[in-house]
Each structure stands twice: as structure tokens, then as C-alpha cells.
């Protein structure tokens, strides 16, 4: 299977919504507990892209979306956090453990090295500043009763230059249980000098995906 990573479009949103709803209703990858409103995905997509942050989809050779990922503003109502973004990544439940997540996070991090996005302060929406990205965080639930304390996802992020920097014990309730939430942060330097070879937000194609 050949995978292409490209910017998401409005036409992709129904498939993205289907993937997201699976994780909302069946997992703790999101702490939403009910089916999200019909305009939730579209609203988030427009907010993220309006800030000039990347929102990507992974598409197979039959044009099915097999995953999506994006970077969103961290506490986006305060300019002081403008240099920090939070990343999210979801694979289609029928296409996990195929290396698709690795392809998406690699492309996402490559783009964030040169991203300049708009930051705003609450109450001053007409006064936006442009910021580069210095810190990238990922936040995830931890099932401490699972094998290995449920840290497989954290360990996967570590392979991409992230480190655990904090854990909030028992702050999330879903599926009848309390879960801790873990914060990981990239410790690799993201910013670099722009050159002619700097990647742009265009389609990247991968064959025989794997870790």
C-alpha cells in the first residue's frame, strides 16, 4: 500500500469525522464522551488552518483517508503561549500498526520547523501576532492498570524526540474509570534557517510503510 501525506481539505472532513468518532466512543484517546456535534470537526479544521498551522491527512492508493494529524495552538487565547503547539494524531482503526502514524508525525514535525502561525489574545481578535514554533507537546491518557502501565504511546513518542514532563493523576473519567493524563514535550530543536530545500506543505508519498 502506498501512502500519501497531504494537507487536508474540506472534502476530507466526513472521513476524518468517522475516524474521530470511533476514538471518542470507544477509547480514551479523547475525553469527549458523547458523539461530537456535526460541525465540531469542521470548526476545529477551520480554526487550525486559519492560524496557518498544519492539518494533514494520510491517504492510501484508493483515496481512502487512513489517518490524520494536526498541530493546534496551546492555550490559543493567550499570546504568551504562542511559541508552543499541541499535536494530535489518529489512525483509521483498520490501519493501525502499519507505520502510518510514523509517516504522519515525521511530516508534521518537519513542517513545524518552519511554520509561522497566528496567535491572538482573548478580547483582541483583530490584533494577531505571527509566531514560530519552539515547543511541541502531546497530551495523552495513561491506563496505569494496563500492561506496562499503558505507556506504549509515550514510548512511541519518545522515539520521535519527546520526553515525559508531567503527569496529572486521575483527572479524566471515561468508560467507568479514572485515568491519568500525561504530558510529553519535544526536546529537539525545531527552528532552523529557511533554505531552498525547506519542505513545504505539499503531498509526500511513501511506499511500503513501516517503522
TrEMBL record:
It comes from the Eukaryota. One of its GO terms (molecular function) is acyltransferase activity, transferring groups other than amino-acyl groups. Residues 3-186 form the N-acetyltransferase domain. Gene3D superfamilies: 3.40.630.30. It holds the Pfam family Acetyltransf_1. The keyword Transferase applies. The keyword Transferase applies. Keywords: Transferase. InterPro entries: Acyl_CoA_acyltransferase, GNAT_dom. This is GNAT family N-acetyltransferase.
Amino acid at each position: 500500500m502506498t501512502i500519501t501525506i497531504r494537507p487536508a481539505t474540506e472534502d476530507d472532513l466526513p472521513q476524518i469525522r468517522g475516524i474521530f468518532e470511533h476514538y471518542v466512543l470507544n477509547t480514551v484517546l479523547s475525553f469527549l464522551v458523547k458523539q461530537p456535534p456535526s460541525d465540531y470537526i469542521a470548526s476545529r479544521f477551520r480554526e487550525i488552518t486559519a492560524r496557518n498551522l498544519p492539518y494533514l491527512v494520510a491517504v492510501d492508493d484508493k483515496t481512502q483517508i487512513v489517518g490524520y494529524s494536526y498541530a493546534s495552538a496551546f492555550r490559543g487565547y493567550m499570546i504568551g503561549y504562542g511559541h508552543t503547539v499541541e499535536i494530535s494524531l489518529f489512525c483509521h482503526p483498520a490501519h493501525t500498526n502499519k507505520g502510518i502514524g510514523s509517516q504522519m508525525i515525521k511530516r508534521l514535525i518537519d513542517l513545524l520547523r518552519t511554520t509561522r502561525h497566528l496567535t491572538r489574545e482573548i478580547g483582541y481578535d483583530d490584533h494577531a501576532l505571527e509566531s514560530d514554533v519552539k515547543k511541541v507537546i502531546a497530551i495523552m491518557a495513561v491506563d496505569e492498570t494496563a500492561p506496562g502501565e499503558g505507556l506504549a504511546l509515550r514510548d512511541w513518542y519518545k522515539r520521535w524526540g519527546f520526553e515525559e514532563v508531567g503527569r496529572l493523576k486521575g483527572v479524566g473519567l471515561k468508560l467507568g474509570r479514572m485515568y491519568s493524563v500525561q504530558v510529553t514535550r519535544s526536546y529537539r530543536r525545531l527552528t532552523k534557517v529557511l533554505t531552498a530545500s525547506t519542505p513545504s506543505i505539499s503531498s509526500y508519498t511513501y511506499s511500503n510503510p513501516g517503522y
